[in-house]
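Reply to dn_fold:

You asked what the input looked like. This is it:
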Amino acid sequence: MSAQPRIVDAQIHVWKASTPDRPWPADAIEPHRAPLEVPEVVAEMVAAGVSGALLLAPTWEGSRNDYVLETARADPERFGALCRFATGDPAEVERLAHWREVAGMRGIRISLNRGDVAGVLAAADASGFFAAAERHGVPLSIYAPGRYDLYDELARRHRGLRITVDHAAIEAAEGPLVEAVEPLLALAAHPGIAVKASALPCFVDEPHPFPSITEAVYRLVDAFGPERVFFGSDLSRLPVPYGELVDVFRHHLPRLGDDERALVLGTALTTWLDWPASLEKENLR
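and this is what came back:
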């Protein structure tokens, strides 16, 4: 019997309650649940057999990264941090040259699903953010549902940039999940684009083992290859038990060989982010 692959979740939001000492922005949107803190995440991961995860703060906490970075620094073999960033600030962009010195940081998350998306993109272009991220090898996770043209343009303009498409670029699946992922597949022509097969139970209405998820993952793997498809949960809004989702990727993808399944479950993600090499360097400090 082959050894079970290491499972690394490509996205889990964690946050704390707003307090006078650690307030949320005044215009913060209402969260969908009570704060999801690290001890609860660890318990969920242990129960589901998940050994690692990328953590990121939700938008209602603003641009702060303190909680995810503290967690990743304290337990670097289990956690990495995707950080929020002031993409339109030229002074902040200059600091990207030293991003690898930020212990625990594995990349930057950009949310482009609400608000003045055009303004955010214009400011990021004007500040030189995307060019700097490409130059300094900063992986980006971008959530821009339905904005396939945006991903395509960024990949053409910055061929050395590593971009992960969050949640398969879906915000609400109005039809079958397999059809919802179809427009994304053309982006596989860009070697710098990968995709998170994350939050997928949010877009189906069927019981475990969620055959629509299996078929959607097959489509993604056929297009991008297992080296560019990453298992993820988006645990805080997962509408099914975490263990059921993990079970789909572990036991209900029979067309994938053991090596392909291991890539999708975590090896592809850690390779994409240069996570093993970074861990080795941090453990030497």
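The longest helix spans residues 258-272.
Hope that clears it up.
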